[in-house]
């Protein structure tokens, strides 16, 4: 895979992009995950209200993700990132002074649209001037940055909520203000061009299968993440811990996902073993049921660890194979993020619907989300078998 002549992105430029990503992750995790604990503590929201809110987030997340590409064609990416950051700052600061949940929800949804639109831009920027090996390393760093800052943010979110009613809004606003200052200082982004990457013929089949399987599993992954985020504050095993520790206990899977990203960044075995993604989907199904149905802290911790490792593989594969097969296009980043939003709609939406149809069954939401995971596993099996039957004899797939 050889890139054509292209001005490579300088290290200082990439460092700034990674810093922007870290700051964006701090704000997003406070507003899109910590918000469930905030709403439960301040307004007494239960699983049903949180699931509806989470599903609404998913709907507008898809809008923001898909809008990113046409907006990037119309506006300079640096200016667009500045505008999106200003919107996020405004939403978080206004939320500080709001006392009604309805207005907070409106501000949150506006925030989510802007947040979703920024990720394809950043994912495209880290792909500038990279061949396949360089892209693998950059995506690994990208994944470590957003997941690491997210895990730390969620772990500390409980302390913020317990000690300051509007602390999560102030903290998110501060992160985005720093990001805006960084964007003002960064050099024009348009001066760097993307490298063109032609996948080796013997790897195209394997990479296409990996992308297909990962993008079947990706919506299911985030269906679990968003549904779990809404359900977690109401689980007895979580409520038995102190308010300061609740988000730490509920975010163990994030730490495990970060460890998964470390391992995947140091190896390339998963580049040619696409069916490992099918195993990851099966693991997510089993561990989700263990986390939500088994009322034991140790079981929850162990299941979260296994789930986080599997989620790391699915996310890495979706982003890497999408980018490497498209020369790092913003459109592929938008599609990747839109699938995340689709999962955020499906998981919490089906969970909320199940709780409405069966209000006397506290496990109805869990079974509904589990069904989505089971369907994802079946779809991944079908895609894998179909690809196996269509592979030419001279292009063997590695397991």
Task: Tell me what the structure shows.
With 399 residues, this protein is mainly alpha-helical. The chain has a single domain, classed as Growth Hormone, Chain: A, CATH 1.20.1250.20. It has 15 helices and no strands. The chain is globular. The model is unreliable at 1-6, 190-197 and 391-399 (pLDDT under 50).
Question: Care to give the gist of this entry?
Answer:
This protein has a single domain (11-390), classed as MFS general substrate transporter like domains (Growth Hormone, Chain: A, Up-down Bundle), CATH 1.20.1250. 79% of the residues lie in helices and 0% in strands.
Terminal Cα span: 22 Å
Do you know the CATH architecture? Answer: Up-down Bundle
Question: What top-tier CATH class fits best?
Answer: Mainly Alpha
CATH topology: Growth Hormone, Chain: A
User: Uncertain regions: pLDDT < 50 for 5+ in a row?
Assistant: 1-6, 190-197, 391-399
Largest sheet: none
Helical residues, percent: over 70%
Number of beta-strand segments:
0
Number of domains: 1
Question: What are the main properties of this structure?
Answer:
Growth Hormone, Chain: A, disordered C terminus, mainly alpha, 0% strand, globular, 399 residues, disordered N terminus
Strand and helix layout:
Elements: H1 11-32, H2 34-43, H3 47-74, H4 77-96, H5 101-125, H6 132-163, H7 167-185, H8 201-231, H9 236-239, H10 243-250, H11 252-266, H12 276-293, H13 297-324, H14 330-357, H15 364-390
